[in-house]
Amino acid sequence: MHSESPKITIALDGFAACGKSTLARDLCTALNYSFIDTGAMYRAVTYCLLQKEMDLTGDQPWGRILQDLPLAWKIADGQFRIALEGLDIEDKIRSMAVSSRVSEVAAISGVRTFLVRQQQLLGRAGGVVLDGRDIGTVVFPDAELKIFVTADTEVRVQRRFSELQMKGVDIPIEEVRNNLAHRDHIDSTREDSPLQAAPDAVWLDTTRMDRKRQLGIALAAAQSLLEKKGESPSRSTVVP
Ligand code: DC
Questions:
Q1: If you measure from the C-alpha of residue 8 to the centroid of ligand 1, how many angstroms do you get, rounded to a whole number?
Q2: What pTM value is reported for the model?
Q3: Best of 101, 102, 130 to mutate for ligand 1, by most ligand atoms within 8 A of CB?
Q4: Which domains are present in the chain?
Q5: 59 by DSSP, 3-state: which?
Q6: Which of 103, 111, 175, 211 is the most buried (most CB within 10 A)?
Q7: Rounded to the nearest whole angstrom, what is the distance from the C-alpha of residue 38 to the centroid of ligand 1?
Q8: Ligand 1 pocket, CB under 6 A
Q9: pLDDT, tens digit, for every residue of 45-91?
Q10: Angstrom distance (rounded) from CA 154 to CA 13
Q11: What pLDDT is recorded for position 76?
Q12: How far is CA 23 from the centre of its chain?
């Protein structure tokens, strides 16, 4: 008789450029889970609001405004996809124009209420890894595994700078450093759900850790929880 393998929800929170999304993708591949990139959702909304030249200050009916944006997010074949009027906007949402305003948009309570609900709907069936700032504290406070990812600031700056260079984006490293510092400040001091580790989160400092080791640690924690749920995880979940 076929029995469904148990699935857990994994929350990865932390500052920008700590390696969360790479770890999230690696975990999804190993566990055959789906990735939900919540930062990409804030970025997509920011991109649309900037396109519309919307006023980002003051009280606005954010729920209705966001509901009417021609944005769609879905998980297809385990991949998280965002489209604007059916078109892929991955490159556009990673631009510095969006990076420099996204924290401002993410600090608006009405925007957060809307996106948190969307994230809860996307992840409600479990078997998901969500990467963000408030996943373990607000979006899925009951997630079975919560990891708070950290890394030294200069390592994060170098990583983001190399990432941008590889994409052909030519900006001075100083601009990357300033952008990260600006976002760290707003993300961790905003009134509504500031970035903080959930009390039951496992801390993972990736400063001197390669990708394989990060995956090994996260996967071992996931496996132990899955075993506690009563069954061994799938064959592919082997700690490297
Ligand atoms: O992970 P990222 O750098 O793509 O996220 C972009 C911004 O969105 C980040 O500066 C903070 C915000 N964010 C948030 O407030 N809550 C989340 N769950 C995810 C991202």
A1: 23
A2: 0.92
A3: 102
A4: 9-226 (3.40.50.300)
A5: coil
A6: 111
A7: 7
A8: 16, 38-39, 42-43, 102-103, 106, 132-134, 183, 187
A9: 999 999 999 988 878 999 999 999 999 998 887 789 999 999 999 99
A10: 19
A11: 84
A12: 10
Strand order through the sheet with 128-132: 34-37, 128-132, 9-14, 145-150, 202-205
| CA-based nearest residue to 218, from 197, 199, 237 | 237
Tokens 């592919």, located at residue: 236
Helices (H), 94-130: 96-99, 102-106, 109-123
Token reading at 8 = 């857990």
Distance CA 92, CA 49 (A): 13
Question: How much distance in Å is there from the Cα of 37 to the middle of ligand 1?
Answer: 9
d(CA 4, CA 30): 17
First CA to last CA distance, the chain: 31
Which residue, by CA, sits nearest to atom 16 of ligand 1? 133
The whole-angstrom separation of Cα 20 and Cα 80 is 15
